[in-house]
Q: What sequence folds into this?
């Protein structure tokens, strides 16, 4: 039972353009969402997060949007840079102590010149 | 330290052998998590600790997997009698609170 889904396994975007990565979830108990970036042979690196009390959070080139009614979130990267090429994972948790993360299966982003 | 450290980087075991993985969380972080990443990028939660206490072990295959976080020692994840299906990358993460988790570089376990 995949509670967090990233339906696009890959995405290719030109440098300078916007990258939009999508994530859907089914568990209505999730109230905290995170995006991680992962390079090969490295651990996931935290990018940005959002609590369910908000619908948008911005940090530099990265913005996460949350639509609770649709159980959907998206990560926008503007402008996209070649160094952004990596696998992006959406993760969700239920607020509480030592909350485990439930991950999506990732979207491989390639930013081309 | 400022980063989560995991050792070894790679581990090769014959089927039925024991495997032991180590994790040093970021100093000051009281929560430690173990995840297993298998094919197709799937991350599976195994176990979490709050200091040395097990908090959530719902993901652990208890018959062969065990984990500890003892004071003043790295946390450990041990697999007794490894099976081929245990081949995966095992990630450790730590956090200060119940929010953002910081991940280590992982240990790649190959069971032959």
A:
């Amino acid at each position: 039972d995949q509670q967090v889904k990233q339906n696009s396994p890959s995405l290719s975007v030109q440098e300078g353009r916007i990258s939009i990565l999508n994530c859907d979830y089914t568990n209505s108990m999730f109230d905290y969402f995170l995006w991680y970036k992962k390079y090969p042979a490295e651990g996931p690196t935290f990018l940005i997060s959002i609590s369910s009390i908000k619908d948008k959070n911005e940090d530099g080139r990265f913005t996460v949007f949350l639509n609770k009614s649709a159980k959907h979130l998206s990560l926008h990267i503007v402008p996209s840079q070649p160094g952004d090429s990596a696998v992006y994972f959406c993760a969700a948790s239920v607020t509480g102590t030592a909350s485990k993360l439930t991950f999506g299966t990732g979207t491989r982003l390639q930013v081309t010149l | 330290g400022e980063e989560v450290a995991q050792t070894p980087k790679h581990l090769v075991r014959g089927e039925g052998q024991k495997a032991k993985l180590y994790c040093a969380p970021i100093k000051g972080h009281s929560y430690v998590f173990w995840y297993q990443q298998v094919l197709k990028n799937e991350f599976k939660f195994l176990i979490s600790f709050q200091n040395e206490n097990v908090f959530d072990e719902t993901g652990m295959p208890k018959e062969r997997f065990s984990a500890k976080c003892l004071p003043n020692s790295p946390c450990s994840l041990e697999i007794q009698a490894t099976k081929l299906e245990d081949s995966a990358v095992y990630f450790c993460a730590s956090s200060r609170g119940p929010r953002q988790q910081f991940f280590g570089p992982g240990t790649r376990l190959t069971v032959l």
